[in-house]
Specification:
Number of helices: 4
Helix content: 25-40%
Order of helices and strands: HHHH
Number of strands: 0
Strand content: under 5%
Largest sheet: none
Number of domains: 1
Radius of gyration: 17 Å
Structural class: mainly alpha
Shape: globular
Length: 104
């Protein structure tokens, strides 16, 4: 994230780092913080989610398992379910627009 900010010409003043999503949302709702969130995060009545220009941050998920391990039979189902979950998340206006801009 810091590299993307520097590339855009600024360095954010980070006072706190929060990993608990509920606390993060509470601080944002209270007007005490801003945060980088995933594109699947829906806006709420108190919180607006907007894309960063040029999509400078990117996250890619990979799933790996042993071919002969105990989960080898479930691997394809796991990948299919992950795709279903992301397709369900696409129902939020923000994520649907993000995907549409990329032809997903």
């Amino acid at each position: 994230m810091l590299d993307a900010c520097r590339a855009a010409g600024f360095s954010p003043a980070i006072r706190h780092s929060v990993v608990d999503n509920r606390l993060q949302r509470h601080l944002i709702d209270a007007g005490r913080a801003v945060a980088i969130v995933q594109a699947t995060t829906p806006s709420t009545e108190a919180m607006a989610v907007r894309p960063l220009v040029g999509d400078p941050l990117w996250m890619r998920y990979l799933v790996a398992w042993r071919r002969r391990g105990p989960l080898h039979e479930a691997g394809d189902r796991l990948v299919a379910r992950a795709k279903e979950v992301y397709d369900e998340a696409a129902q939020t206006p923000e994520y649907a627009a993000w995907r549409a801009r990329r032809g997903c």
